[in-house]
Amino acid sequence: GPRTHAAWLCSLVFDGARAFEGVTPDLDLHCARVNDSAKKLYLKPVVSTETWVNLAREGIAKFDGQVALYIRPMYWAEKEGPWVQAHDPESTRWCLAIYEAPMRTPKGFSITLSPYRRPTLETMPVDAKAGCLYPNNARSLFEAHSRGYDNAVVCDMLGNVAELATSNIFMVKDGVVFTPIPNRTFLAGITRERVIGLLRGAGVKVMETCLSYQDFRTADEIFSTGNYSKVVPVTRIDDRSLPFGPIYTKARELYWAFAHFK
């Protein structure tokens, strides 16, 4: 209701997993991460990872097996504490939302540089999947959309590329894959980590390092990873078109093979 602390002061964490084509890749990792996020926001993770997974599988079974689903475990605080801004951890509530959400067709999308920046761990809980972080992502998207782009590259306070407004970002130059090194300004995603491991396992060199926007402007390929769409290509950065490159294609094929093997 209107007095729910999370609705007022955003004491809320969540995670997101996917069910598609009869598979649920890394469901256990997503369920574990929501509990970790809860602890970082001083919420009480009262549901075990195993229980989350079992509830998710029970819910998935109620849908047509061919329908793509989004699986969203959540915790939030219902009541305020003595100092109002800080919630009462004992009022932690939880829910599991499972709903139809088609996988986006990997047709490519355009990006540009956002004027907004990512916060640091000293200023925001960037090591958690916390609802309070997403309005900053949203304004980056709105600003990019106002200029005719689909998504935005968001930098950290030092000007290094951190991520896209919706997902982690990769680039390819001369056959080598580069991605921003985790520096406590963005959440290094589960799908990101999975794709890095799969590419390295396939003999592709992947470098986690500091990257500038200019590095991306001169890249041979750019693609993104995230739970909602998994692995998708960027086909335009500013006024420069980009191809569906061989490394992106390999990354997507490797991820799909992993997901279905599991």
Oligomer: single chain
Rg, rounded, reads 19 Å
CATH domain fold name of the largest domain: D-amino Acid Aminotransferase, Chain A, domain 2
CATH class descriptor name of the largest domain: Alpha Beta
Kindly report the average pLDDT value: 97
**CATH architecture descriptor text of the largest domain:** Alpha-Beta Barrel
Instruction: Give the beta-strand count.
Output: 13
Strand content bin: 25-35%
Low-confidence stretches: none
Shape: globular
Q: Which structural category fits the helices and strands? A: alpha+beta
> Portion of residues in helices?
25-40%
One letter per element, helices H and strands E, the order comes to: HEEHHEEEHEEEEHEHEEEH
Domain tally: 2
Main beta sheet strand tally, sense and closure = 9 strands, mixed
Per DSSP, the total helix count is 7
* Terminal residue distance: 40 Å
CATH superfamily membership of the largest domain: D-amino Acid Aminotransferase, subunit A, domain 2
